[in-house]
């Protein structure tokens, strides 16, 4: 049985039920639930008002929440970087929710997971590698923004990743072209469909 840590985006709170909000959180939670059937899984997430610092879901994953993420301040700074047209957006800077990343890193040192699965935030990867240097790091990319960042920023952050997982072949191909030195470690894993809500059409839809 492996010890696996999933790290939520610092803006996305995580509930202990299937009532998740936001596409990235939904995908992460569904993965964590399924992995928890055979492994010890902990999900790290920011703490929203009224949530406990620690909780165990019926679906299996444990949840550890980081207090004091100052989401409104970081959101305002992110918006400001867009308005001023900065070369590196705030969401890609080392300062982006750094307190959250450091808090998760301290917990990783205690948990000693075998695998750390990070959503989108490349700036956290060096922090996590220093905290648990023997763990395998996986970056889950849910959009194409990583392919738009300067390689001088991206390369140092990704040098210790085991693999990068993307949500589509389009994103995979963009990243492979942008980061050829990492191309063999970039793979597509589709988000899937919840068949409890959606069913295939009985006949093909006419164009």
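-> sequence recovered:
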């Amino acid at each position: 049985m492996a010890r696996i840590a999933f790290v939520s985006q610092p803006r996305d709170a995580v509930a202990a039920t299937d009532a998740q909000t936001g596409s990235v959180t939904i995908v992460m939670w569904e993965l964590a639930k399924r992995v928890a059937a055979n492994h010890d899984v902990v999900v790290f997430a920011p703490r929203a008002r009224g949530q406990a610092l620690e909780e165990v879901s019926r679906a299996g994953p444990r949840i550890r929440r980081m207090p004091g993420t100052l989401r409104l301040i970081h959101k305002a700074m992110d918006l400001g970087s867009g308005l001023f047209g900065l070369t590196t957006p705030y969401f890609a800077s080392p300062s982006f929710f750094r307190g959250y990343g450091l808090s998760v890193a301290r917990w990783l040192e205690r948990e000693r997971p075998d695998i750390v699965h990070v959503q989108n935030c490349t700036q956290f990867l060096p922090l996590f590698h220093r905290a648990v240097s023997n763990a395998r790091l996986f970056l889950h990319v849910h959009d194409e923004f990583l392919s738009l960042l300067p390689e001088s920023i991206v390369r140092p952050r990704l040098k210790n990743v085991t693999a990068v997982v993307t949500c589509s072949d389009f994103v995979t191909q963009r990243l492979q072209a942008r980061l050829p030195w990492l191309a063999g470690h970039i793979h597509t894993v589709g988000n899937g469909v919840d068949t409890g809500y959606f069913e295939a059409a009985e006949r093909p839809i006419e164009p």
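The beta strands are 3-7, 40-46, 54-56, 62-66, 115-119, 136-141, 161-166, 186-188.
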